[in-house]
Amino acid sequence: MIESRPVALVTGASSGIGRSAALALANEGFQVIGTGRDTANLTAPAGVSFLDLDVTSDESVAELVAGVIARYGRIDVLVNNAGIGAAGGAEEISAEQARKLFDINVFGVMRTTNAVLPHLRARGSGRIVNISSVVGIMPQPYMAAYAASKYAVEGYTESLDHEIREFGLRALLVEPAWTNTAFDANSVRPDQPLDIYAGHRQVFEEYMAESVKAGDDPALVAEAIVAAATDTKPKLRYPVGRTGSVSIMRRIVPTRIFDRQLRKINRLPA
């Protein structure tokens, strides 16, 4: 079946930001293919189809993308949303645990992007929308590995965007702040915890839980994703909620003052 509507592929669409994005894009007229590790028991809303995908597998990604193109005849927008969080001191996260995190948050983005790009180039149009984070533009104690993965997505996307513009394509960033999802509950904890960090780690986990609970509605992030997918003159970055003010502060506030405020928020000694 050749789909006349634009087609959006959204990874990590079974819940949270991804699910909200899938619904918002469908309401905007897209045929949406949402992916997750196990979508068998998910109820698909109108305009959304769910398919299984493991973004850490080259084979799974290639098979999924080829199947979507064969069935619908096109992909217009790729939303790389699949990801996991991680909380813990940098020293408490083993290299192996960090590798698994990067395999989803960074290499998963690269796998799906590389699988979709040949099709988008052949069409001469399309958008790749990568979900970053406020922690991709600022440090966050006890989230060093996660922050590193989002900093990587920022650099990758901005560089990619320069490479593909001549083909009629754009790579764009959506940067949520704390968002009211299951992010906290689903974040991995350190595999080599150390007593010396236990107290501050506990304080941070309480801070993160409170911030997520009071965070933005995922629908607000979905609005930014739709804008990135559809704006006639898209911006490279779409900050959501407090991310916009944080971005401005990082540019204009002296480093020592920003540093002091960050430590105060995280209840770290001056």
Q: What is the CATH top level name?
A: Alpha Beta
Oligomer status: single chain
Task: Output mean pLDDT.
Answer: 95
The parts where pLDDT drops under 50 for at least 5 residues are: none
CATH superfamily: NAD(P)-binding Rossmann-like Domain
Strand order of the largest sheet: 3-2-1-4-5-6-7
Shape: globular
The class by helix and strand makeup works out as: alpha/beta
The fold-level CATH name is Rossmann fold
Question: How many E strands?
Answer: 7
Our estimate of the beta-strand percent is: 5-15%
**End-to-end span in angstroms?**
62 Å
H and E string: EHEEHEHHEHEHHHEHH
Largest sheet: 7 strands, parallel
Q: Radius of gyration from the CA trace? A: 19 Å
Family: Belongs to the short-chain dehydrogenases/reductases (SDR) family.
Protein name: Short-subunit dehydrogenase
Keywords: Oxidoreductase
GO molecular function, one term: oxidoreductase activity
Keywords:
Rossmann fold; 7-stranded parallel β-sheet; 270 residues; alpha/beta; 49% helix
SSE map:
Blueprint: E1 7-10, H1 16-27, E2 31-36, E3 48-52, H2 58-72, E4 77-80, H3 95-105, H4 107-123, E5 126-131, H5 144-164, E6 169-175, H6 183-186, H7 195-213, H8 218-230, E7 237-239, H9 243-252, H10 255-265
Parallel strand pairs: 1-2, 1-4, 2-3, 4-5, 5-6, 6-7
Helix pairs in contact: 1-8, 2-4, 3-5
Domain Ketoreductase: 6-191
InterPro entries: KR_dom, NAD(P)-bd_dom_sf, SDR_fam, SDR_oxidoreductase
GO molecular function, one term: oxidoreductase activity
